[in-house]
Amino acid sequence: MECPHLSGDACARVEGARFPHGSPSSWCCNVCRSNKSPWVCLTCSSVHCGRYVNGHAKRHYEEAHAGSRDARKGDKETEPHAVCMDCNSYSAFCYRCDDFVVNDNKLGSVQRLREHLQSLENSERLLNDRNGKRKCTDAGSPSKKHMKLNGTLVGSLSATGLRNLGNTCFMNAILQSLSNIQQFCCFFKELPAVELRSGKTAGRRMYHTRSQGIDCNISLVEEFRKTLCSLWQGSPTAFSPDSLFYVVWKVMPNFRGYQQQDAHEFMRYLLDHLHMELQCGVDRAGRSCLARRDAAVTEDAHAMGCSGEARLPRSCRNGVATVVTDIFGGILQSDVNCLICGTESKKFDPFLDLSLDIPLQFRERKAKSQEPGPVCTLPDCLHSFTALEQLDDSELYTCHMCKKKQKSTKKFWIQKLPAVLCLHLKRFHWTAYMRNKIDTYVEFPLKGLDVKSFLLEQEKGEPPGSSNSSSLYDLAAVVVHHGSGVGSGHYTAYAAHNGLWFHFNDSTVTRSEEDTVARAKAYILFYTKRQRENGK
Questions:
Q1: What average pLDDT does range 355-365 have in this prediction?
Q2: Does residue 169 have an active-site annotation?
Q3: Which residues does the UniProt record annotate as the domain UBP-type (predicted)?
Q4: Are 104 and 26 in the same domain?
């Protein structure tokens, strides 16, 4: 949907004298003087910090909106100070629409400002030495090679942000999360370039998707590999994933355009297409470099407490497992019992992630006068997922003994644990007219998530020396949705790297405290299986 708030009054002419000195990415907020996430107003060219710093850009709009409400008399197109631009990614955002701006006005005001900011940034880089200090300093600035926490040097910041190409925060949050899952990321980073894999010219790709109508001369695996390689090279500027996004448009038509998308849906499509493309590579090359590297991944998984037998069965399209199923693949067992004759039916389903409901008792909003109720926890959601339930009349089970549909109960068990347990909290649900968000806070552990009580009995009873007996997981990354609905708002991610937590907000990367991560309203959580120590 295009933004209707780009009238001439709302977008002033671009004049150099109206802007601060220095590179736009280091401009400081007019209120708090922070240079984290600076945004410039298209109406007055004032600079304020984003909503994930101190929110002065949004407050600037709200104050201007309140002061001019009567003068506008309901004119929807006259909305001064509503649209601002990120000085790092050059993406525009409208606070009135609460969404990113993908269109422009007849004068091209948005594009003119974008080009002006890019010109200022490039000129500043040419004038200043790379090692020179920026005029406005901030201990938490993502541009610094080293960061301080409580006055102590805590390490080198080598993380690189991702430019927002226009409502692509859903993709950026997933990419940053996957890049911090070591096993998964290392596999792709160590792959040779595509021309080396194929043994032919660079224009001939050996990996093809199986979707109909797809250009066979593109490779999602290759562009994904290039992106992961660019994220931890210590670049002071954000990486633009436009080549990867182009391939995503080609192989995943659902994600074409610049409207906001669901990060979980994107993750599922991405992993599925990576899996299929890697399968195709193994099919065409036999025991190729991919197959050999999959074997290496299996050995790594064994060392981390996930034996070869615990991997997802080779029940995929062509019976070939890949790094996707080796790392994210688990098995669910569902037990269905007929309430009439007592016959039990077992079914086994592979999974790459588990989608968990937030229990209804935690969703109900308490009146302000009432005491706050108990906090929902991640184990509460897992208990709800695996609890015994009686199927309703719309889900009657066809009993093979009774030869007809009967009332029954159903229960899930986790039969095999994955090396990386991905948990998706169902925060969006459909009402009669729209899809609403469940904004309930769910408490989750950063270390030591124990899933033993959700395992099948024989899994629990494995010998103590078994490499697969560990049921403890530690958090590697978490994706957060900020906003009121799935079609709007913003996605960011927290991820752990070398013992430090980082917050990835598109092109901005900052150090984060564990307490800050733990307070986040998680949407997707990535847990890595803890390696079992010998004899313990």
A1: 84
A2: yes
A3: 1-120
A4: yes
